[in-house]
Amino acid sequence: MKFTPKALSVVVLAQLVVGCATVLAPSGSIDEQVDYFLNKQEYTSALALVADLQEHPDPEVSNPQQLQDKVIEQARHYEQQIITSADNAAAKDDWRSALELYNEALAHFPNSEKLQQGQKQLLQRQDVSLAKLRLDLLIADGESMHKQLLISERVAATDPKDWFARHALENKIEEADKIANDLAEYGRHALAAGDLELAKRTLPLAVKLSSTPDIKIANARLQELLAEEEDRARAEQQRIDLEQQLKDEEEQKLAQKQVKKKQKQQVAIAVAQKQALGGQLLIDFKNACESSNFTVAMKLRKDLAKLNINNPEFQSLSEKLDQHIAIHVQSLMEEGTQAYSRQQYEQAMQKWEEARILDPQNEQLKAHIDRANRVLEKLKSLKQTKDEF
């Protein structure tokens, strides 16, 4: 009995399990045992049973390929479900839940390479997040320390004889030097990596906390790089602006030539087209009115109005159309009302919606439709409640 390559790595892993572990399965057919493990989310055991069919075919299993596909599909779905849930939890900074999801999943499916890789990536993301938070905390400590240092200096200067104030200031300077050195270390690494944004967050603050020469040198290098970057950005923007200006001027000259060349032709063509279109639209409008095709007639009337067609024939047709629409809308409203009274709510809605297309500003129609919608929603809710019980 042969299995297709569709089995993928999960089946190969399961085959290893067959040779090195005892699969504790309940009594019953292979299908029943597989279903038992799938219900328990013990995918390694389920895959082991399927893999074992290669060595020990079971006559009761009529379609081993279908059974294999079923197990693999559910295993894949389980893997993806865990990965998605863990990613969502991590996105909300709920790292505990994210890690527990992987720990629990790998307890059920320890040989899943996809889950192992997902857990590894999650831990890497956790490390990155922790590093960022520790840096944010260090910067916050530095900013707080800078404020404390300034106040301590003022206290010591206000009362030079206060030994405790001088001692407190010395302690603050020592603490500030430590924080400054940590910030400078981040800043130097950032400069080496070309990460000027990170260097800007750390080195200027480090200089405020300590006057150590190497910190000043690192910050001076940052300022040089920032100035160079600003010069490059300014020069590049000037180049882009000049290039765009020349392009705009050239396009403007070309457009002006084309406009002057085609202006007379376009005016003549537009006049001719308007006349031809207006004449044909008026014919179509008349036919639509005569055939009581109200929706088409209303659209054609708008099109004719845009063309400033307002001759006596158009005015007469338009007045008759309004009269016929009013009669038809009233008829549809009455039909809808009759259907509603017979509790045929969907049919009533259909009639009223049809009328509303012709008379969208009709508040009475809107009230009817809203009322029917509420009734239909209530009936739907009652049906769902009934189905649940």
Spell out the blueprint of helices and strands.
Blueprint lengths: L7 H13 L9 H10 L3 H13 L8 H28 L3 H14 L4 H46 L4 H31 L2 H14 L3 H78 L3 H13 L5 H30 L3 H14 L4 H26 L1
Helix pairs in contact: 1-3, 2-3, 3-4, 4-5, 4-6, 5-6, 6-7, 6-8, 7-8, 7-9, 8-9, 9-10, 9-11, 10-11, 11-12, 12-13
Give an overview in words.
The structure is a single chain. This protein is mainly alpha-helical and 389 residues long. Among the domains are: 5-111, no CATH class; 129-211; 319-388, Serine Threonine Protein Phosphatase 5, Tetratricopeptide repeat, CATH 1.25.40. It has 13 helices and no strands. It has helices at 8-20, 30-39, 43-55, 64-91, 95-108, 113-158, 163-193, 196-209, 213-290, 294-306, 312-341, 345-358, 363-388. The two termini are 48 Å apart. The model is unreliable at 1-23 (pLDDT under 50).
Low-confidence stretches: 1-23
The percent range for strand residues is under 5%
Largest beta-sheet characterization: none
Structural class: mainly alpha
The coarse overall form would be extended
Radius of gyration: 40 Å
Continuous helix count: 13
DSSP strand count:
0
What string gives the helices and strands in order? HHHHHHHHHHHHH
Write down the overall mean pLDDT.
Answer: 86
Proportion in helices: over 70%
CA(first)-CA(last) distance: 48 Å
Short overview:
The protein has helices spanning 8-20, 30-39, 43-55, 64-91, 95-108, 113-158, 163-193, 196-209, 213-290, 294-306, 312-341, 345-358, 363-388. The longest helix is centred in the middle third of the chain and has 78 residues, at 213-290.
